[in-house]
Amino acid sequence: xxxxxxxxxxxxxxxxxxxxxxxxxxxxxxxxxxxxxxxxxxxxxxxxxxxxxxxxxxxxxxxxxxxxxxxxxxxxxxxxxxxxxxxxxxxxxxxxxxxxxxxxxxxxxxxxxxxxxxxxxxxxxxxxxxxxxxxxxxxxxxxxxxxxxxxxxxxxxxxxxxxxxxxxxxxxxxxxxxxxxxxxxxxxxxxxxxxxxxxxxxxxxxxxxxxxxxxxxxxxxxxxxxxxxxxxxxxxxxxxxxxxxxxxxxxxxxxxxxxxxxxxxxxxxxxxxxxxxxxxxxxxxxxxxxxxxxxxxxxxxxxxxxxxxx
Length: 310
Prior knowledge:
By secondary structure, the protein is of the alpha/beta class. The protein folds into 2 domains: 4-75, no CATH class; 82-305, Vaccinia Virus protein VP39 (Rossmann fold). The protein is 29% helix and 26% strand. A 7-stranded mixed β-sheet has the order 8-7-6-9-10-13-12. A 4-stranded antiparallel β-sheet has the order 2-3-4-11, with no helix packed on it. A two-stranded antiparallel ribbon has the order 1-5. Helix 9 (262-268) runs antiparallel to helix 10 (273-286). The longest helix is centred in the first third of the chain and has 16 residues, at 84-99. The protein starts with a strand and ends in a 5-residue tail after the last strand.
């Protein structure tokens, strides 16, 4: 069985009080690469979820041991190719907002972005280099360079990247990570590593789920954000504090709307599996499956700067 290890609040530390939000409802066989593959159909499985009494971050405790988690993501598959263009269209406006604050267009870095299709944004907007860092071997096989200066590095985003050479400290102009920060064993350590990778004045762009969103509050445990893959979950206030704790300044947060097809919204909807399996074929038969719909479904963005001088 995959090992579980205790967690504490990534912002307030191990001495912070916590209360149980939702009891665990998973089984040992749920800890496999298929379940830990991106954008699978939500199934409401999760570890015990607790809420920090200091800052309100919700996190899995216990959760997968970091080494076991890395193995699961290395073996995970990427099977959402039909959604890639829709995902690109949803996140490009967020990157546009970050781009206005970028002083140099050197290295464009994406972390945990699957096949690296968002690197196209960096190539289209004049960044000299584009780099995807992603642990999935399947994603590496499916990587298609966005241009001659696009690269893929398979691995976890941590300090070993500096030590082994794929990434240099203070070399990144813009670093982005979408729906990824909630998956890592230590978000504060990841943000510190992003900070270290950015050049002085560089920009970080993050999108993640919002625990304070209307949908999350109304649905409660039925919300798809409460998932076995999600180790930490945030709201704009506590994630802004976490970015500041990691050394970032000029921190801006705002709600993000996603433009997806009705097919994909139905895929994500918190409906019984049997009903969902009836709705999806009906959408295909009627031709409505591809109809685009833009919704604010409870995500938010953070844009922050590494100070120009330290």
